[in-house]
Amino acid sequence: MSLPRNFQRLVDKAYERLDQWEWKQALKLGKEIKAKRYSAGFEVIARAYWGLQQPKKAIATLQEGVKTAPQVWILWEYFGHYLSDSKKYAKALKAFGCALKCPGVSSGSVSYNIALVCKRQARYSEALKYAEIALTDR
Less Cβ crowding at N or C end of the chain, within 10 Å? Predict the structure, then answer.
């Protein structure tokens, strides 16, 4: 589904703000995107909160996002990232498992992140298994 040109520019601008670490501007744009009922708003808001060192708000935003748009794999992947970085490994693995069930998922990316969680838990053989999957499944 393609977006109307003006709205696509808004979304592109939000991602540019994230890429430039302009968290407050990205947060404002993300809220505008979310108000228009587009799932990228959750991602932008969460990433901006994470950049602003507000991990609880980032995780809460993604939790709302995956409830609202459970078929959007990137929301599950960021949810898993942030849970893993917050040392909530079991929940992170569950989120990554949900991501893998979504249409259009980048399974290599998700497998890489599963490998990272396994490594953080000192489950090295599993980490290696998922790292190999990530390398072959792009």
Answer: N
Structure-token pair, residue 124 = 């090295």
| H or E, element range at 39 | none
CA distance 55 to 6: 31
pLDDT at residue 95, as a whole number: 98
Give Dmax over CA atoms of the chain in angstroms.
48
Contacts of 42 (CB under 8 A, 6+ apart): 30, 34, 61, 62, 64, 65, 68, 69, 75
Helix (H) or strand (E) holding 131: helix 124-136
How many residues are given for the chain? 138
H helix intervals, 2-88: 5-19, 23-35, 40-51, 55-68, 73-85
Q: Is the pLDDT of residue 2 over 70?
A: no
Q: Residue type for 43, please?
A: E
CA distance 77 to 60: 14
Contact between residue 124 and residue 118 where contact means Cβ atoms under 8 Å apart: yes
The answer to whether the CB of 92 falls within 8 A of the CB of 80 is yes
Q: What is the pLDDT of residues 34-52, one digit of tens each?
A: 999 999 999 999 999 999 9
